User: Which sequence fits this backbone?
């Protein structure tokens, strides 16, 4: 493995102080996460507003998922090699460009292009986690990383009610103008308050590996997200799935041979890393079901016997208490991880999510009980998303933090994609006629809750199989006049400014 080296810094005295870095990076993470869900309330209106077909309108969500999945691990690796803050600022710049494109046009092609650019900015969160790990003192790492990781869930829960308010009260382009302005403010704040990490990973960027990973992901996610429309046994769907497998196998064989791979598969295959990523996929599935079905369920007409006939804004606000709990619980998760280890935090989180869906299964007729169940699920998600980066960083070399967190984020996104396809299939196949229209049955929603609870329990079992204690995969020594070990906090190493060499010891 190539050594990780500190980047030259000729302007140390003028560099930004990390005092406000946590707040700034967390704000960036929330903004980027909001962008992933902000168009969901708008989708039913897009055909009338743009003249596009419903299938074309659905690409406003699909393309964001695709570009986010592709660029998150790639930009994480680029950040490890060429500067995390530099790549983070570039990602925010792409977000601003995408927002402006959506704000100035009603043409579906331009809107899809803008949304694709917004999706690429999802790499901001793993890059921010890596910067915090590199820059903060040991005692602050876990709590800061926990908050940064939780911005995924916070943004998702905040985005729906905010978008609903805009759609009902303002011109729909307004939300894109606002997101563009906030993105520009984020760039200024990052440049003023977030220092550049001094650590770099040696070697050449693995362009072939990046293309291979991107190809496999696009084939897989296209098949998953479009399979319901194309038919799960259609030639396009099966062809893409076969192509995803073939490309992934060829990519894996190539990655094992190059000196500086896009993804270090030998490290990724270690139980501490592999099982953490599997848990992330399952928890991404479990969390996303909560966001997908809550708003739709409370908007169902009262004629269904279970629907509450709530407005778009009210349905979005049902998720807001969960967002508040995510902010409140991220430091709690950090304290649990510091005292008992992130494995315990993740196990507790998976159990809480499963319990939340049990509550939801039996409380589908009362608005307040629906909100309570959704909030329990969000609370478990907050603890889980806070613990995952700690587990990842415990098992990978310092110089691969950005790429490893990007891969973990990717696994969450894949889990969300599979969840979206599963929910759509269940709700489309378990229906009845109520009030002159076809609607999902109450049993359909309950089946979704059971499936999501099963995913959370599976994540719990995977978590219990994680190696106990600190791994040695990430151990390192500081090269200099004093050969002192790298600091550790709750199993998470913090990076000294001097040169660090990761070892190849097994987990």
Assistant:
């Amino acid at each position: 493995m190539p050594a990780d080296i500190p980047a030259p810094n000729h302007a140390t005295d003028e560099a930004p102080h990390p005092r406000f870095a946590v707040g700034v990076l967390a704000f960036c993470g929330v903004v980027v996460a909001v962008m992933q869900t902000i168009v969901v309330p708008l989708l039913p209106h897009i055909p009338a507003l743009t003249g596009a077909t419903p299938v074309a309108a659905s690409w406003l969500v699909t393309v964001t998922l695709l570009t986010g999945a592709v660029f998150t691990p790639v930009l994480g690796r680029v950040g490890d090699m060429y500067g995390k803050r530099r790549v983070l600022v570039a990602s925010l710049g792409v977000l601003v460009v995408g927002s402006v494109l959506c704000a100035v046009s009603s043409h579906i092609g331009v809107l899809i292009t803008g949304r694709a650019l917004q999706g690429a900015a999802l790499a901001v969160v793993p890059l921010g986690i890596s910067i915090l790990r590199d820059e903060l003192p040991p005692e602050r790492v876990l709590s800061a990383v926990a908050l940064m990781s939780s911005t995924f869930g916070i943004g998702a829960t905040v985005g729906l009610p905010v978008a609903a308010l805009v759609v009902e009260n303002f011109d729909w382009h307004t939300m894109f103008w606002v997101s563009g302005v906030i993105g520009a403010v984020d760039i200024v704040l990052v440049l003023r308050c977030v220092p550049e990490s001094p650590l770099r990973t040696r070697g050449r960027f693995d362009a072939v590996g990046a293309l291979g990973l991107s190809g496999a992901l696009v084939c897989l996610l296209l098949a998953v997200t479009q399979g319901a429309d194309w038919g799960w046994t259609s030639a396009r769907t099966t062809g893409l799935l076969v192509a995803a497998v073939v490309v992934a196998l060829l990519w894996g064989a190539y990655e094992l041979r190059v000196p500086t791979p896009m993804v270090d598969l030998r490290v990724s295959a270690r139980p501490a890393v592999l099982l953490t990523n599997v848990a992330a996929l399952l928890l991404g599935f479990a969390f996303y079901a909560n966001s997908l079905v809550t708003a739709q369920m409370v908007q169902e007409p009262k004629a269904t016997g279970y629907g509450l006939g709530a407005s778009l804004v009210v349905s979005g606000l049902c998720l807001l208490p969960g967002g508040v709990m995510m902010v409140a619980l991220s430091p709690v998760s950090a304290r649990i991880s510091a005292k008992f280890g992130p494995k315990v935090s993740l196990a507790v989180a998976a159990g809480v999510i499963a319990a939340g869906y049990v509550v939801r299964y039996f409380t589908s007729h009362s608005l307040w009980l629906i909100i309570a169940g959704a909030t329990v699920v969000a609370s478990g998600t907050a603890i889980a998303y806070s613990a995952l980066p700690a587990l990842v960083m415990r098992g990978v070399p310092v110089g691969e933090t950005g790429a490893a967190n990007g891969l973990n984020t990717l696994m969450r996104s894949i889990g969300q994609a599979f969840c979206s396809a599963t929910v759509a299939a269940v709700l489309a196949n378990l229906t009845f006629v109520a009030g002159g229209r076809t609607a999902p049955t109450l049993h359909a929603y309950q089946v979704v809750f059971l499936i999501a609870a099963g995913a959370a329990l599976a994540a719990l079992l995977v978590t219990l199989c994680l190696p106990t204690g600190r791994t040695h995969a990430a151990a390192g020594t500081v090269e200099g006049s004093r050969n002192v070990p790298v600091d550790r906090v709750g199993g998470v190493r913090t990076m000294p400014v001097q040169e660090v060499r990761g070892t190849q010891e097994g987990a």
